[in-house]
Amino acid sequence: MSVKITKTYEWAKLEDGVITIGITAKAQTEIGEIVNLRLPKDGIDVTSGAEVLVLESTKSAIDVYSPFSGKVVAVNKALLQDISLLNKDPENTGWLYKIAPSNIEEYHSLQDYNTSKV
What we know:
Layout: E1 3-5, E2 10-15, E3 18-23, H1 25-31, E4 34-38, E5 45-46, E6 51-57, E7 61-65, E8 70-75, H2 78-81, H3 84-88, E9 97-101, H4 105-108, E10 111-112
């Protein structure tokens, strides 16, 4: 199973027609300690390039844009209880949301992300 990376350092993993999306460890380091976030709502439709969530760090607030068009089918509610998952393990337990893509070619057009962490 391949993992892809966006130009803005989100990782994306396709499994059974659903894409899990998170930020890379590099992005988390650059953002700094994330202290709050606003996740998208389950079931909403998103468009590639549209704001989908906000990460607030000790440095600033970062708007995160969806790399794909489709429907949000899950959000990582564990982050609402323990934001440290995003700071400690952004490429695994700190995933952000899952999307059922409306155009799978958006996924396939991304660069492969070579890591053993995801």
